[in-house]
Write a structure and sequence with these properties.
This protein has 371 residues and is an alpha+beta fold. The chain folds into three domains: 27-35 and 184-250, Aspartate Aminotransferase, domain 1 (Alpha-Beta Complex); 40-176, no CATH class; 258-294 and 312-370, no CATH class. 22% of the residues lie in helices and 34% in strands. The strands form nine sheets. The chain has a six-stranded antiparallel beta barrel. It has a four-stranded antiparallel beta sheet with strand order 2-12-14-13, covered by helices on one side. A hairpin with a 4-residue loop joins strand 16 (257-261) and strand 17. The radius of gyration is 33 Å and the shape is flat. The two termini are 59 Å apart. It comes from Minwuia thermotolerans.
């Protein structure tokens, strides 16, 4: 019993004594992209049928009518120069992502988006639609019933709409017909691309890979790219090599940055933001005007008189005299900066102006990015 408690205590001390780099490290697979292992976007144009009067109006969507006539002609039905008046068909754009190393016959999900003035795709079925890649080749074919996550109900005086009924999804609705032809076993080297480029992080990735494999096979060539030379004895085991590398843990590093979305009033600050010693005061001039009109009437027994409306105006002025200076010491952390600004009682939008003013004063050691 004593040995068990002692072992647990030692384990707890080991966790508490872990260095910050161990606590904040991430897997390599979460911060880099491996060359060639990526999705390929596909797009196609098709028709959805079976809609209950919620499809395109053919007079307003000539491309829908032309597509419908062309499809019927391929099926042996001639409708040229005929007055087609149906609202059960909609023209759509179909999009999908061909996964890395997608093989012939495998299935992928597709997304269907209305192009015309259709009200809803609920209950519709997508007809056979070729999906092409950036090179113009057909890589998949999509077809199937559409699942819509919304609806629309319309009456004479009110309309209720939930989510977007003109967008739907077909799970496993696409069949891969062509492969990309990319093979890992043919590679002599592979480039790893950092999702967030940084010189320090690139060097740490190089050192971590070399330390894990015991060979100097990786080299950081710029803030984004680390080149990995494939050893001769591992070229037939590329999956095993990459699986080992992607589990390597690396401590990332980024420049101090503050991202501001002025439209939404959102502020996001990184952990490395620092502020030199500075004094801040924030105050607003607020003028409140309240109108309370009153009615003046003559006495009950007055010989004559008129009823008049008398204006009553109350004006209040708040000059922010209760707002005081707050001193932020040199090198304060993100938490101290936030606490100091909150102590002034400022909101997000006022905080944006304060941060920009601190930056202009040269006291903010961070980059400000306004979205």
């Amino acid at each position: 019993m004593f040995r068990t408690v002692l072992a647990a205590f030692i384990g707890t001390l080991a966790v508490l004594a872990a260095t910050p780099s161990e606590a904040s490290s991430v897997r390599l697979k979460d911060i880099v992209e491996f060359e060639g292992i990526r999705d390929n976007p596909l797009v196609g144009y098709g028709l959805v049928v079976g809609l209950q009067g919620t499809g395109d109006t053919l007079n307003n969507s000539p491309f829908t009518q032309q597509s419908l006539e062309a499809m019927l002609e391929r099926l042996g039905v001639n409708t040229r120069d005929q007055n087609i008046n149906t609202e059960n068909v909609a023209a759509v754009m179909v999009t999908a992502d061909l996964p890395a190393f997608g093989r012939q016959g495998s299935r992928i999900d597709v997304v269907v988006n209305s192009m015309g003035d259709a009200e809803s795709l609920l209950g519709g079925t997508l007809l056979v639609t070729p999906l092409i890649g950036a090179d113009g080749e057909v890589y998949a074919v999509a077809q199937g019933p559409i699942i819509v996550g919304g609806f629309s109900a319309t009456g004479n005086a009110q309309t209720v709409t939930k989510n977007i009924p003109t967008v739907g999804r077909i799970s496993n609705g696409g069949i891969v017909e062509r492969e990309t032809g990319f093979e890992l076993v043919h590679m002599n080297q592979m480039r790893l691309s950092l999702r967030n480029p940084d010189l320090t992080t690139a060097m740490r990735v190089e050192e971590a890979i070399n330390g894990q494999l015991g060979k100097r096979i990786s080299k950081a060539v710029d803030p984004t790219t680390v080149v990995l030379a494939i050893p001769e004895d591992r070229r037939l085991d590329m999956v095993g090599l990459l699986a080992e590398i992607e589990q390597v843990r690396v401590e990332t590093d980024q420049i101090a940055r503050i991202v501001i979305d002025e439209k939404a009033g959102v502020i996001v600050m990184g952990r490395d933001v620092r502020v030199d010693e500075i004094a801040i005061a924030q105050g607003n001039l607020t003028v409140t005007v309240t109108e309370t009109p009153q009615v003046s009437q003559p006495n009950a027994f007055a010989a004559q008189g008129n009823t008049e409306t008398v204006d009553r105006t109350a004006i209040q002025i708040d000059e922010g005299e209760d707002r005081k200076l707050t001193v932020l010491e040199q090198g304060v952390s993100l938490q101290q900066l936030v606490d100091g600004l909150n102590a002034l009682g400022v909101g997000p939008r006022d905080m944006i102006s304060i941060l920009q003013t601190i930056k202009a004063a040269g006291a903010l050691q961070a980059e400000i990015e306004v979205m």
